[in-house]
Automatic annotation (TrEMBL):
Source organism (scientific name): Actinokineospora soli
Keyword Mitochondrion found: no
InterPro entries assigned to the protein according to its UniProt record, in alphabetical order: DUF6596, RNA_pol_sigma-70_dom, RNA_pol_sigma70_r2, RNA_pol_sigma70_r4_t2, RNA_pol_sigma_r2, RNA_pol_sigma_r3/r4-like, WH-like_DNA-bd_sf
Protein name: RNA polymerase sigma factor
Domain RNA polymerase sigma-70 region: 6-71
Pfam families, A to Z: DUF6596, Sigma70_r2, Sigma70_r4_2
Gene3D superfamilies: 1.10.1740.10, Winged helix-like DNA-binding domain superfamily/Winged helix DNA-binding domain
């Protein structure tokens, strides 16, 4: 129960408390104290009627108690935070949502682009350091050091919690979009745990995407990200069986796809196409539009999918995009050509790299190599549903 509340409400609580006190460190420490108190009290007393409200109220009270003690020692910073909490007016600006405002704050130019995204995911996305590390394909210890350095940089630069001016929003937009998309990805395929998905994270990412679209309705990449999330989310009901087992895209019951989200996503993709200013999120949305436009897997226009991946790799080259392009190449030109492309990639710690290799090797009847690739994928898969699916495919291959 407490784990679920933490994942769902940690980011919102930090955002609310940061607005109240004007200090990220105070907010983060207070929320941590509140969750520690929940661990002590809820097992015996039972959860409160509104767990999120309890966490925010407890965190606020703990922070005020701490600041009063510090203010009594003539701590000017504590006195200022108390004055703000007592009702000094909040700064007005373009971003009205607490959580979205803090997304922009964490994406301050004082940090490197990667640090902005990582810190945002950790503080506001409710992701653990290990989950953020997996999103960046780096060891957990490396990510922990990066997060510590990022917060130290914000403190040293005396970055305040404030709403960015309208003129400052575009410079921070790229990192905010990346953070929102990684938050969505963690919800769509959880990096760890028994369940394949975490729907609350998907819903929050889409909510933030809609806020961004309302804030910047003429930014094609904002609209492209929203379209991408909607078209991806539309397929989620068909991704698992009733008992939670993973269902691959070719095997999904497409009647379960959310046609309302698909229609909205297609409309947004068409809007982006009319603007004629393609970016990575728009192209990925277009790829998903092709998939969701096909009534069956066999009807997928793989030529168009490969062409779109070619465009994506020209604009934003990445090994992950190249890996997914290879999947499309396998459908268009066969597994042998696709395997050549996959083997040229350097993704030894990414379980999907080994899973895709295993599938291609199986289709080429190279069973021994395929089973070794499945073993590598199984060892790296943190999500139990993904790992179970890989184990089942390996077993089927071994039993043939």
């Amino acid at each position: 129960m407490i784990d679920e509340v933490f994942r769902a409400e940690h980011g919102r609580a930090v955002a609310v408390l940061t607005r109240v006190f004007g200090d990220l460190d105070i907010a983060e420490d207070a929320v941590a104290d509140a969750f520690a108190e929940a661990v002590r009290r809820w097992p015996a007393d039972g959860p409160p009627p509104s767990p999120a409200g309890w966490i925010i109220t407890t965190a606020r009270n703990r922070a005020i108690d701490r600041l009063r003690r510090e203010a009594a020692r003539d701590d000017k910073h504590a006195q200022a935070a108390l004055l703000r909490a007592a009702g000094e007016p909040d700064e007005e600006g373009a971003v009205e949502d607490d959580r979205l405002r803090l997304f922009f704050t964490c994406c301050h130019p004082a940090l490197t682009p990667a640090a902005r995204v990582a810190l945002t995911l950790r503080l506001l996305g409710g992701l653990t350091t290990a989950e953020v590390a997996r999103a960046f394909l780096v060891p957990e210890a490396t990510m922990a050091q990066r997060l510590v350095r990022a917060k130290a940089t914000l403190r040293a630069a005396r970055v305040p919690y404030q709403v960015p001016r309208d003129a400052d929003l575009p410079a921070r937009l790229s990192a905010v979009l990346a953070a929102v998309y990684l938050l969505f990805n963690e919800g769509y395929t959880a990096t760890a745990g028994a369940d394949l998905t975490r729907p609350s994270l998907c819903a929050e990412a889409i909510r933030l995407g809609r806020l961004l679209a309302a804030l910047m309705p003429d930014e094609p990449e904002v609209i492209g990200l929203l379209a991408l999330m909607l078209l991806t989310e539309a397929r989620r009901p068909a991704r698992t069986t009733p008992d939670g087992a993973l269902v691959r895209l070719p095997d999904q019951d497409r009647s379960l796809w959310n046609t309302t989200l698909i229609a909205e996503g297609h409309d947004l993709v068409r809007w982006c196409l009319r603007r004629g200013s393609p970016g990575p999120y728009q192209i990925q949305a277009a790829i998903n539009a092709v998939h969701t436009d096909a009534p069956t897997a066999a009807d997928t226009d793989w030529t168009q999918v490969v062409a779109l991946y070619d465009q994506l790799l020209t604009i934003a080259p990445s090994p992950i995009a190249a890996l997914h392009r290879a999947v499309a190449v396998a459908e268009l030109s066969g597994p042998a050509e696709a395997l050549v492309e996959v083997d040229a990639l350097d993704l030894p710690t990414h379980h999907l790299f080994h899973a895709i290799r295993a599938d291609l090797l199986t289709r080429l009847d190279r069973r021994t190599e395929a089973m070794a690739a499945y073993d590598a994928a199984i060892a790296l898969a943190g999500n139990e549903a993904e790992r179970s699916a890989l184990e089942e495919r390996r077993k089927e291959l071994a039993d043939e």
